[in-house]
Amino acid sequence: MELGVVGKPNVGKSTFFAAATLAPVQIANYPFTTIDANRGVAYVRKRCPHLELGHPCKPKNAPCNGGTRLIPVELLDVAGLVPNAHEGRGLGNKFLDDLRQANAFVHVIDATGGTDFEGNPVALGTHDPLADVQFLEDELAHWIAGILSRNWDKEARRADLEEAPSEKIVTARLTGLGFTEMQVHSAVRDSPLDPKMARWTSDDLFRLARTLQRRGKPMILAANKADLASREALQSLSKATGYLMVPTSAEYELALRRAASAGLIDYAPGGSSFEIMRPEKLTAAQEKGLEKIRVFLQERGSTGVQACIEEAVFKLLDLIVVYPVEDEHHWTDKSGNVLPDAFLVPRGSTALDVAFKVHTDLGNHFIRAINARTKMVVGRDHPVQDGDVIKIVAKV
Ligand SMILES: Nc1nc2c(ncn2[C@@H]2O[C@H](COP(=O)(O)OP(=O)(O)O)[C@@H](O)[C@H]2O)c(=O)[nH]1
Ligand SMILES: [Mg+2]
After folding, report:
1. What pLDDT is stored for residue 28 in this prediction?
2. Residue 66: exposure state from Cβ atoms within 10 A (0-12, 13-18, ≥19)
3. Could you tell me which of 43, 46, 48, 50 has the C-alpha nearest to residue 332?
């Protein structure tokens, strides 16, 4: 699972990334850190099923923080995209190529309208953030269209002669961009296209690219710098975009997580409050800064950063969490670890999909699954539910 943090320069992408990937101190020994300069691990939260068991879990891939399971999600901080990045402007193509595997994008916009297209600061309210949404969509569609149209005419003629299905040709051309075959097939099917591929115009290819981009690389908006924007302005922006949008203050979230990891405050990311632990260690400026943040949290509920990642995962991508175990009675793996793993899978995934997610062998030798809560046996095609604890029975 990977989310690409995208947007033009100076909107707060790196601040968002730094905040989201800074682990709370309680789990600092867990690799929720930066993998390299611009790849890091954030997480989404779920109530851990160990609370039902009455004794603690022993997690391997997703730590548990007092009953809150933290399930890792990779974040990619992409350097700012400027208009015409697809033509290579501002190292555009390299950055676009970094986004190939992203399942979805968090598009960070400056909700205050205080940054122009190139990332230069301008008077607040003088740049329309909606224009950024349009521009980014266009860049992504141009990028996909560019890959799709490379030597199109030649290949299209050959494919027409061989009567190759167009979905197959398009899928092959876009390998590595992270689209599923189903997404490509449905995009081709829903586009008004000539049966002969050689007759597809560059406009046709661009429209197809746009459909693919919207379906295969969905986007949530982080309306950032919300600390400088009024609630009313944010509400009308949200209404106008037609996208899922979460107001964020990446700057406040970063300040809180840094203060928390320094032991100055007690703060759980996503929370609506914090507690000062070491008042004697705070400078006057820090104290004043924290008070401003406290007021913001009281008014808005949270900084929005954690909420934005969770909306991307649970709403935009509609993923659910399942807990595979080997012992359906004790909810353990072979070595007795309680609820060792938590996996994100698309809603509608079957027991067999979960088996493959755990291990290819388990998928290949699948016999049946057992819902560890109800002890009911379920077949391969049974769709799993959010929070299911599930045992896979396979031929050994
Ligand atoms: N007021 C405010 N400033 C922010 C926020 N997030 C980032 N900034 C500031 O915006 C500028 C650009 O941030 P940066 O993360 O480098 O943007 P990037 O170029 O998109 O990666 C920096 O001066 C940040 O301190 C925020 O939530 N509120
Ligand atoms: Mg940056």
Report:
1. 46
2. exposed
3. 50
- 168 with 112, same domain: the answer is no
Q: Which ligand is nearest to the CA of 120?
A: 1
Q: Is 144 a member of any domain? A: no
Mean pLDDT in residue range 258-285: 94
CA of 6 to the centre of ligand 2 (A): 9
DSSP 208: H
Give the model confidence (pLDDT) of 94-152 as tens digits.
667 778 889 999 999 999 999 999 889 999 999 999 999 999 999 889 989 998 999 99
Token digits of residue 276: 């000062």
Which token pair is 159?
Answer: 């494919």
Give residues (CB < 6 A) around ligand 1: 7, 9-15, 80, 224-225, 227-228, 249-251
Same domain (yes/no): 197, 231: no
Do 58 and 120 lie in one domain? The reply is: yes
Q: Which residues pair with 50 in a beta bridge?
A: none
Q: Return the CATH number at 362.
A: 3.10.20.30
Does the pTM exceed 0.90? yes
